[in-house]
């Protein structure tokens, strides 16, 4: 019988790539869907065929117990979160509830459905395995560069603090109940499916529109911020590999390469033959109250222990996103022309 995976955050960037990958590996894949008539459900259904859905919300313990009980998964990937860092200063309590307490609720659902407690352990081979989407934002004001599994945390946003709670509670359930529970400490990863609020996609969408004469300027915040950016399609393979090991453990996942926001802008504008300095405007309102200046992964462990390697490099990734946004902008533009011609 094929293995079953339950993914929270199925409508997000990583949810769709992970579902595609697991389906290609012969899994039955279930996505947790929140809300009434969630508009993003049809989008992910179009992107990924053969998905099944189960209702639930990371804010609601009972719904998670029901979902785990219904799906009876072999593996649970907790990707659900409010993932845009600036929102965490505006809605700190909600972000803490979803990104922090939400992790505890999924762990509790697995514990309850599997009948695990501190005196009753379940053989590792028969356990529901749990993956937590931890983040490089936990390193925050970095103690060392590059950052590795043992680097201390100094999160700089309510988002990072909530992710640190999720990280430690995952480790605690592993130690307390012998649960197969791991955290992937993933550095920024992007794709044509990235939300338009994140800086790479904001840049590539703007470049496409500027190239087509539909927009003139692009407002950005801190151009000096440095990140280790990779391709989401590569990173979901690492998530899966983490759950296939004999022993559960936490891993840093990144490319080990650093680029500034300015580099990202330059590569994207260069790709369409434009000079970024003619279009980029700094808006101080977009600078964060407490910035994470630099992040870069030490990939030694993930490469040695999991044999994982990224396949897409950063310039290639930015160009892939620009090309995809150019196609999308053209389609929208043509559609608008058609409506105009039809006097709609
Ligand atoms: P997205 O923002 O694209 O997706 C977030 C997902 O979380 C959406 O499917 C959303 O569903 C879901 N969600 C939000 N609130 C709830 C809730 N209350 N209950 C259930 N689901 C909810 O994020 P990514 O795909 O980029 O990231 C996946 C995970 O990895 C996140 O946890 C993120 O914090 C983490 N991460 C991401 C990195 C990156 O660079 N992309 C790096 C490191 C960590 P809905 O349609 O209902 O809104
Ligand atoms: P980040 O990603 O906060 O690292 O979190 P984001 O793309 O939002 O910001 C990256 C860096 O770019 C700087 N920046 C801007 N950012 C945005 N969004 N918009 C701008 O206009 C802008 N100008 C400059 C930011 O200040 C920042 O330094 C992402 C999310 O996916 C998290 O969920 C995940 O945990 C981390 O990556 C790892």
From TrEMBL:
It catalyses: GDP-alpha-D-mannose = GDP-4-dehydro-alpha-D-rhamnose + H2O. GO terms for molecular function: GDP-mannose 4,6-dehydratase activity. The keyword NADP applies. It comes from the Bacteria. Keywords: Lyase, NADP. InterPro entries: GDP_Man_deHydtase, NAD(P)-bd_dom, NAD(P)-bd_dom_sf. This is GDP-mannose 4,6-dehydratase. Its EC number is 4.2.1.47. Belongs to the NAD(P)-dependent epimerase/dehydratase family. GDP-mannose 4,6-dehydratase subfamily. Residues 6-321 form the NAD(P)-binding domain. Catalyzes the conversion of GDP-D-mannose to GDP-4-dehydro-6-deoxy-D-mannose. Pfam families: GDP_Man_Dehyd. It is an enzyme of class 4 (lyase). The gene is gmd. The lineage of its organism: Bacteria, Bacillati, Actinomycetota, Actinomycetes, Pseudonocardiales. Its cofactor is NADP(+).
């Amino acid at each position: 019988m094929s293995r079953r995976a339950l993914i929270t955050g199925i409508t997000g960037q990583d949810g769709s790539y992970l579902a595609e990958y697991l389906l290609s590996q012969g899994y039955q894949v279930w996505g947790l869907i929140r809300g009434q008539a969630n508009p993003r459900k049809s989008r992910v259904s179009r992107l990924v065929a053969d998905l099944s859905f189960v209702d639930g919300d990371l804010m609601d313990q009972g719904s998670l117990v029901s979902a785990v009980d219904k799906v009876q998964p072999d593996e649970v990937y907790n990707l659900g979160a409010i993932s845009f860092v600036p929102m965490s200063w505006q809605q700190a309590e909600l972000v803490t509830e979803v990104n922090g307490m939400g992790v505890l609720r999924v762990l509790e659902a697995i514990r309850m459905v599997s009948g695990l407690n501190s005196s009753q352990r379940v053989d590792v081979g028969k356990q529901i395995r749990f993956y937590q989407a931890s983040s490089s934002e936990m390193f925050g004001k970095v103690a060392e560069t590059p950052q590795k599994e043992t680097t201390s945390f100094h999160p700089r946003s309510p988002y990072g603090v909530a992710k640190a709670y999720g990280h430690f509670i995952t480790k605690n359930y592993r130690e307390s109940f012998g649960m197969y529970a791991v955290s992937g400490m993933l550095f920024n990863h992007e794709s044509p499916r990235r939300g338009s609020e994140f800086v790479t996609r904001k840049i590539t969408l703007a470049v496409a529109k500027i190239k087509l004469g539909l927009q003139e300027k692009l407002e950005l915040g801190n151009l000096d911020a440095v990140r280790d950016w990779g391709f989401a399609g590569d990173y979901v393979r690492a998530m899966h590999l983490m759950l296939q090991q004999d022993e559960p453990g936490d891993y840093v996942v990144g490319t080990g390469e650093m680029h500034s926001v300015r580099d990202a802008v330059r590569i994207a504008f260069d790709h369409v033959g434009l000079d970024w300095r003619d279009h980029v405007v700094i808006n101080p309102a977009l600078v964060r109250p407490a910035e994470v200046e630099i992040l870069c992964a030490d990939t030694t462990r993930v490469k040695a222990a999991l044999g994982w390697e990224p396949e897409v490099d950063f310039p290639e990734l930015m160009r892939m996103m620009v090309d995809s946004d150019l196609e999308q902008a053209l389609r929208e533009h043509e559609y608008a022309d058609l409506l105009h011609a039809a006097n709609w």
